[in-house]
Every structure is written in structure tokens, then in C-alpha cells.
């Protein structure tokens, strides 16, 4: 039901915003009252024009209009009506601006809540993410909600109030006119009922095909090089054309439905006016009464017919897009987020970090880590190796706070801490780093406003990582854009950028996830020498690796087998594995 859907939409708005919404509703009511008074302001003019005898009554009432000629009185009333309408519409613009600011602040807040919920998701949820759907929820649906849900609701309330006030006034003036206007509304209501199925079909098409269109577009854009190299362009173009054609048809049906409603309203109104003229003519009603009645009906129709149109179009608009309410409600509920723990005092990391009896798994599946124990001594270079699927990546996710453990404890210098305390100590160097479509310096200082970036620090890191040659090739140096996902960089350059990003964070622990895979041997040695220097400075290095030829580089080596860690004291044994 419409009432239940509006209630669900109301629940998406924060309580503080609902209070502001009440103020907006009050302003809309004032605007509706002003619109009603604007309509009433024309009645004295019509009365004086049609029945000049009214001048004597107005002129003698309380001596307000003493001895004014009919022409002077008409001019005065006309100017008064004009001034009132100008003031009313000026206030209407202010109210409309206030309403729009409120509506799109709600959209901005919903988008922010969707982003926050997404960033707090745990790995179990993140691994199932449909990225195009999430982009739609964050960047599109909040504004669809504002434009096609809140705005129609506001219009529905204000226009219904206007129509009600006009009908009440007309009942007092002449009961026949409201009956005629109700006759106008009846066929429009029947029209809406007859088009509910078409609206449902349009809504379902928008709900299904728009995310699919976005998903196909992202696949084509992100995979263009491989698509072109394998000459598969036509497959993806054809794949895109299906949802696009269905959306086009849906928008055509929606446009015709909305336009048709306006046209039918005009036809019905014309029939009623013609019927009214025939009725007064056949009934030999006095000419002045006929003109007055037509004037009142025309004045009422001038405002109430657009109101009926807006009411019906608001309902159509609301019904076409009401699917976003449930989607946003689910997205902002965020039941699958990482549970936030209260802020704790993190002890200094001076000696060692211990993970004791850690057990973790994915979404109720088999245990990946089971009663696992590992110690990270400060300043050590630690290697973690093992077969694929044994749990190396799971440990990484635990350390980064992306996967919650079900059992076990974390200790910093023998003080028990939460997982978030560990995460705050770690800088992560992934195998395939994410690179923004931004400058080199913004990519290294990821997440820091440009005006706050320490350029001297980045210059030093670039020199240490042998990225000077890359900077020299860029026309704008460090400030040069490096393309979406780093398309202007080689694999080795991308990897060094990821290391530079980790070094800029200046964390206690550097966590490398197969980060040497794309680097040639000479550069790998240079980076390992740099890492060795960092270790001497007190940095702790944990490297997940399959490369065994650098075993002697590490102080400690762990192998992971069946969910448990085994410390390998003899690095030769490690290198022979």
C-alpha cells in the first residue's frame, strides 16, 4: 500500500532530519494557504465586473472605500491582487529553495551512510560484492530517492491541501462547482488504477536493467585493452545493447503515461466546461449567474486542475521508483559490518606482538586458521610461506581487521588488545595495488588532502625506491596524473608505488602480500636492501611470499600448514621447500 511505502521512506530519514522535515511541511502548508488566498483574491474582481451593484456594498462597508468610482475601485483591487500574487510567488520560491536544500541534504546523507556502511563491511560480505550495484547505491539511488520519492511526497501533501481548501471554499460558495470538479477527478482516478500494471512493469524494468547496464558498462571500460586485443568488442557492445533497449522502452512508456495523464485531464475539463455552458443555457439561468459560475469554475480549474495533475503525476513518479526504498534501507542497515570496538589505549610496541590460539573462517565454513600462534619481534624480517589455500591470506585479513576471529587473543608487549590496535600499526603492500586516477603524489599519500601532503618526505621516498627516472619522464613530475588504475605505469612501477605508499604511512609494521612478484631480480634486491635498512631502524617486516631464493634475508620463517604456523629455524630448510 502507498501508506506503508511512505512509512518505509520516512524511516530512511534520520530523526534530526525528520524534525526539519516537519518545518518544511509547515512551510508547504503556508504555501498552500497562500495559493488558496491567491485564488480567492480574484473573486471580488469577477463580482464587480459581472455585477456592478456590488460596488455600493463594498463602498459602504465600514467606509473603507469611501466614494470610489467603479473604475478606480477595479484598478485598486487589480493592483492589490497583482501585488499579493507577486509576494506570494516570491515566498513560494524561498520555500521551494528551502525544500530543495532539505531534500538533497537527505540524499547527501543517505549517500554518506551507504559509503560508511560499505567501508565497514567484513570480508565475508565484501567478497560477494557486486561493484556496479554498490556504485549505483552510493552515487545514484540516494538522489533518485530525493527526486522521485521525497519530492513527490511533498508535492502530494501540498497539492492535496490546496485542492481540499479550494473544494471547501467552493462548497460554501456553490455546491454545484465541487460536484463538477469531482466529476473531473473520477475519470483521472480510474485512469491511474488502469495504469498500475504498466507502472509496475516500468518499475521492474528500471530495477533490473539499470544496474545491469551499469555493470556491463564497467566491464567494457575496465577490460577494454584485453577486449580489444582479443577482438571481442562486438560481444560486449551487443551485451550492452540489450539492457539499453529495454530501459529505453521503459522510459518511453513512463513518459507516455505521464503525458497522457495531463492530456486526459485537459479533455475532461473541456467536457465539463462545455457541459456547464449547455446546462446553464438549457436551464435558462440568468446570464449574470452563468458568467459568474463559469468565472468561478475557470478560476478554480486554473489552480485545481494542475493540482490534480501534480497529485497523479507524483503518485506515478513515486510508484515507478519506490523499489529504491528497500534497496537503500538494506544498504544503510549494515548488519554485515565489522563490529566497532570501544576506543582503547594502545600500548607501545617495543618488543613483540603475539597472536595466540587464533581461529578464523569464512561465513561459517571450515576453519582456515585453527588455534594458530605466531610471534612478531620488533625489528625482525619475517617470512610466511605455505601452499595456496592454507591460510596466508586469511592471516593477512585478520591483521588488517577485515576478518574477525572467532577465537584467540592479540598481545602487544604482553598486553591484551583488540584487533583494531594491530591494524593501526600496519602498512599494507598488496600484490595488485589500487591506483587512483590522480597524480603520483596523491597516490603515494593516499587519503591525505593535497595541501597537507609532505612533499619533502615523498621526494625522499621516491629517491630511496629508485622512482626518480619515472618522475623525470612525467611532464609535471610528481603532480602528473598517472591514469585510471595506473595505466601509464609498468607493473614494477606500480609495485614500487605501493611500497612508497606504505612507507609514507610510517607504520611500525610493513605487511607485504606477494609484493615482489612483479619486480625483476635486480630491483627486488634493491628493495630488500631498503627493507633491511628499515628493519635496522626498528620497522618490523612481515612478508607473505612464495620466493625461496631470498630465505637468508629473513630473521624468522613460518610455514602455514592445516591452519597452524610452524617456525622454521633453518632457513636452508625453507629454501629447499
From TrEMBL:
Residues 353-577 form the ABC transporter domain. One of its GO terms (cellular component) is plasma membrane. Keywords: ATP-binding, Membrane, Nucleotide-binding, Transmembrane, Transmembrane helix. The keyword Lipoprotein does not apply. Pfam families: ABC_tran. Residues 23-320 form the ABC transmembrane type-1 domain. Gene3D superfamilies: ABC transporter type 1, transmembrane domain (1.20.1560.10), P-loop containing nucleotide triphosphate hydrolases (3.40.50.300). The chain crosses the membrane at residues 21-50, 70-91, 137-157, 163-192, 267-285. It is a multi-pass membrane protein. The keyword ATP-binding applies. PROSITE patterns: ABC_TM1F, ABC_TRANSPORTER_1, ABC_TRANSPORTER_2. It comes from the Bacteria. This is ABC transporter ATP-binding protein. It comes from Pseudochryseolinea flava.
